[in-house]
Design a protein that fits this description.
heterodimer, A: mainly alpha, Helix Hairpins, elongated, B: mainly alpha, Four Helix Bundle (Hemerythrin (Met), subunit A)
Amino acid sequence: MILGVSIYEILTLTSILFFIGVYGFITRTNLISMLISVELILNSSVVNFVVINKYLFPEVLQGVFFSVFIIAVAAAETALAIAIIINLYRLISSVEVKDTEVMKY
Amino acid sequence: MEKILFYILAIIMIVFAIASVSSRKMLRSVVYLLFVLIGMAGIYFLIDYNFLAAIQLTVYAGGIIVLMIFSVLLIHHIEMELEVAKTIKKLITAIACLAGLGIFLATIYSHPFNVIENSNSTTISEIGKGFLSYEAGGFILPFEVISVLLLAAMIGAIVIAKGTKKSEVKK
């Protein structure tokens, strides 16, 4: 654990990052920018897993395992999303949400 | 010392996260996201999970950010500025997010956490043994499932990104 830093301060930091991600996800109108916001949300939850493991249950490692799984799923999700975005750009020459009417070709 | 480091990291992360969701140039917003992810790796170093910090740096900073920069360069002109949402929409979203943050913080601060004072440090071999043990509490099955998932996602990404061209679709 970090000397002199309580669990409340770290949870406050991750909550702030989570809501910045939510704000970006709602206000952005571009697919890649929305992906960036999703990364922020996922990352703040990963930090929560690790911090709760370290501060409350230091004798087990379950939080570390789950955060590694979340990172792996996030990497797969990003790769697929970028593949879809690039394919969409080749179909309709745009990545704006309002132009994305057909995802099925 | 560690307290000061934590606050510096926290301020850097929050400032760059806000910059990343409000910047109007897409490449810049990806680079700001990179700073937030490196700050998170710094927090993992501070709470002594060096393995996770290394994973964060290699997978996010090394893999995902590079992938995003490539896709931005493929589909965008660097100088192009993004559309901004309407001010009223921004305002309503900001108010809703602040309300949600308030609820989160009220819940967190009213919950008495049973913190155990410790300075355990975790070695990589412990994490590896936990991942590959097939006894009670081992994680070998999810570990294998996640590797199959990554393989499937990779093949799917290749198939989707190959796609069909616009001229072929019209026929």
